[in-house]
Fold this protein.
Amino acid sequence: MSLIPAAKEEGSAAGPLPPFHTIDIGHATHVALVEPDTAFWGLVRKDRLADPTAVAQLGDIYRVQADGFAREMDMLRFHLRPSAVYFNPTERCNLNCSYCYIPEDMRRNGEHMTAAAMLDALERLHTYFRGHMPEGRLPQVIFHGAEPLINRRVVFAGIEAFADRFRFGVQTNATLLDDEAVRFLTGHGVGIGLSLDGPEAEIADRTRRRWNGTGVYDHVVRAMERLDGYAGYNVICTMTTENLPHLTELVAFLHAHRVPACMLNVTRCTLPGARRINGGDEAMAGAYIAALERTHELYRETGRKLVVANFANILIAIMAPTARRLMCDISPCGGGRSFFALAPNGDLFPCSEFIGLPAFNGGNLFRNPIDDVLASPPFKLVSGRKVEDIAGCATCGIRHFCGSPCPAEAHEMNGGMNRKGAFCAFYEEQVRYALRLIADGRHEDFLWDGWDEDAETLYSIG
């Protein structure tokens, strides 16, 4: 990634060109030009890159829109208020997954939230969100963990009591997702996320297994069958050394089971166990892109999409930065800004990744006003982390399509908030691939239908 000195010198009648970065996206005919501060970009044919008029046209458009783009990026990065909470109703889990970010003792012996505390917490959260969210827009509560359905009675009581005041979701390992639970959750329109790391038990059970070592693949497949036809569910796969060679088979398996959307997530390296199986940038990028291409082949063959949500978010971050749905790939990230995490005893953390790190406890829902917690030093340490302060990221052309995630792993793995997280090269290749798709006109095939219904086109070049 580098500046284009010749183009910068030529400029146009309107003045010198902005400091565009040239990014080789690995495309036969196009390169990308990016103005990093505003995430403004364009694709230019390689054979026209030396033509001052071709690059100047992009510069002229940038100058017209630059102030608006800068304001939007500033709003996205520094002025959001939370609209969601990752709600952990228990610290316990019936699995011992090798990459879990929650400490083992907590998962074995942790506490459950009581029904009374659940209702009290939801009431306090409702009051907080209603103080700043627009009328008619419901805040989101995602029951998360550990395994939330271990405390199922309490979770369901909360959903039933506050069904009209929140959009609810549950992320579950599926071991306790029986027919009764599926009826309750689907009947209340709850979003359901399952976890599956391979297309067959021998692969999936290497990383996701019970304390006694047995796997849970069969439970997840049965849950997928129960949820067939329910639009509000997805499957999360964590990419590791154990499943990288099988990602294309996995997305084919999920597509065959009519899964509406999935996520292919990197292994968050907050705790040491995850670092041993993280896969490595080059191998992960190759397997990831091959899996994305397989979803495209399946879409062309069948007319039915399997949207890989975390990649779709990168595409949207490029095409419409403020329309992105996930907030891990912007800096500061969404932790402590657009969402926060709640532990069973009421303690508040910027994100679930931090729940096993006591130093990032910003206060307690039952004792402290949420606004005070958001302004606490532990939260500010996370919400104040900017790519401009990170060596390498500060001069990177794609810094607002990546965000140098994740602050938890940067702090725990690399020694501080002003350090990169893991997978820098992986994120770079992901963005290059996304730009190649745009250059080829294939990008819409990887996105949710209607993703841009509320978007406004500010500029488009032929």
Observations:
- The longest strand covers residues 30-35.
- Residues 89 and 344 are 5 Å apart (CA to CA).
- DSSP finds 17 helices and 14 strands in the chain.
- The two ends are 25 Å apart (CA to CA).
